Please model this.
Amino acid sequence: MSDVRVRFAPSPTGFLHIGGVRTALFNWLFARQRQGVFILRIEDTDQSRSTDESIQAILAGMKWVGLDWDEGPFRQTERMDLYRSYAMKLFETGHAYWCVCKAEELEARRKEAEAKGLSPRYDGRCRNLRIASPPGDAALRFKAPQTGQTMIDDLIKGTVVFDNTVLDDLIILRSNGYPTYNFSVVIDDALMGITHVVRGDDHLTNMPRQIPIFEALGFAVPRFGHLPMILGADKTRLSKRHGATSIMAYKDMGYLPNAMVNYLVRLGWSHGDQELFSRQELIEKFSWDHVQKSAAVFNPDKLLWTNAEYIKASPPRQVAQALVPLLEQAGLRKEVEAVSDEWLAQLVVLVKERAKTLVDMVEWVRPYFGQIVTVDEEAARKFLTPTIIPALNKLIVRFEALPAYSKSEWENSFKQLVEEEGMKMGQLAQPVRVALTGRTASPGLFEVMEVLGRDRTLFRLQKGLERASTG
RNA sequence: GUCCCCAUCGUCUAGCCUGGCCUAGGACAUUGCCCUUUCAAGGCAGUAACACGGGUUCAAAUCCCGUUGGGGACACCA
Model:
């Protein structure tokens, strides 16, 4: 048992994206390694941007990659009373004050400051007004320290120091009564007993705004860890224009969740030269010491390779299970229902070295469903020609003489015929391949026959022969 | 503009803290060869990096300073 308590706190303003998953993953790994608690918290205090669909998408994404949480999901909008009471506590203890500046005025002043090349900070004009009974549309501001320094020993970045002179008084309660992020985060992290706040390093500059709030309220300050960003190929922050950023898009593209996790964890973390890790190994080997400090470029090629490795190494039945929904989407529902799980697993074994994604795999696997195979026209024109008729005929006769399919027997029979006819292996193999699979590229011929079974093999060879005769 | 963070092959990274073992290792991608009934997979080999400039030291990828470059933050967004 340990007292580690960490959290993943996304805001529900869109889908669960790649960067979010990686942040969640590092938190989850740390919690599992230390037998701590992983909490899921939904930060939905911006009522204009938060949606229920987003919450569902986040939960679905977390489940897909197998990041289970121990507490939550909590929603900040269900904790409003808490934020308000702590905000009032800050007011009563003199750590906060009412601000009657209008949003539009603040906006205008900020723009003005920017135009002059100054820091767009709040000038603190309401700080000493001592407004005791504010109008309904006042906001509450926290009195930030104006001298000294705020520092942390970051899990990843090491010592980070800010001069408090750069701070301004941030709003903690909006005029509509809703708390702002920097405030609700502190209250929740404190109340939920979070021991390690691990988040993206775009939050690093929020740290000096949050720590004084912890202190003003007498809360213990947690440890922080700021993860580097994930960048697109152009080295700017990963966004829609870099292609898919939603984790679920990768499910649709045929990626395995474990492959996603493996790729993402290696983006910014390493364990010597090792590239592939089981979930258990990840939990055992994870360490903050080996988390990179600098941003990483998302590399789709390497993700694809990782996925291919997982397709090859995962239990075939498990891959088959993940493949079924895609097969059904591809219009093979009836065909899939007609076959056994074992046979599907066999099919996976047949093609797993060729498919880099499940979507790829659907195409590789398609010829093995149904009695008849759709033959590629160009392939037929090239290989199912009259010249192949005699050899194909003899092959069928020989195969028919063999009562049951046996890989070695059929292969020997095939090779013997090739030799007797004075052909090259490929001269007979390619026409047979086209007859059997409809294509010029396929897995090994005799593995294909095994999956097809004796009857369908014979049937398709016969069809191929007819095709060669009619042209 | 101000503040913060960062800097090893095209990309992900090992090495850096605790200088010599670094002629800088691995992986992806890429090129060539091998294997081969096709396509893959696999095997072998190759190209490719310490951002720059100063220090410190017998010795610097490693420690220090500066420069440059990149990223992030400066909201009644999170």
